[in-house]
Design goal:
- By secondary structure, the protein is mainly alpha-helical.
- It has a domain of 39 residues: Orthogonal Bundle (Histone, subunit A).
- Helix content is 40%, strand content 4%.
- It contains 3 helices and 2 strands; from the N terminus they run αααββ.
- Strand 1 and strand 2 form a beta hairpin.
- The longest helix is centred in the first third of the chain and has 22 residues.
- It is flat.
- The relative contact order is 0.08.
């Protein structure tokens, strides 16, 4: 699979970008290189490789789940234009 400059211009319109003809030529070359690389990676036989969650053998450092800061909820809401029952009041946007 490869993309030509016309397809690049069509993609640019879809994502709301504007490219000149020379930029479309440059991008088509770059995107085609990426597509070729992905196709090459898809051809690699990985059936003998175990899935892993991280490329390095790491253990998470766990810490105790302890509250270390005081509750400043009321302080933060004191500067709000409107608050009620611990909630920020905002103008209705859907009628």
């Amino acid at each position: 699979m490869s993309l030509d400059p016309d397809q690049i211009q069509q993609l640019a319109r879809l994502v709301r970008l504007k490219f000149s003809e020379s930029e479309a030529d440059d991008f088509s070359g770059q995107l085609n290189d990426i597509i070729r690389m992905v196709e090459q990676m898809n051809q690699v036989n990985t059936s003998h490789i175990q899935p892993m969650s991280h490329p390095q053998d790491m253990k998470l450092r766990l810490r105790e789940d302890v509250i270390t800061e005081k509750d400043r909820h009321r302080d933060f809401q004191s500067g709000a234009p409107a608050a009620d029952s611990g909630l920020y009041m905002v103008p209705r946007v859907v009628e």
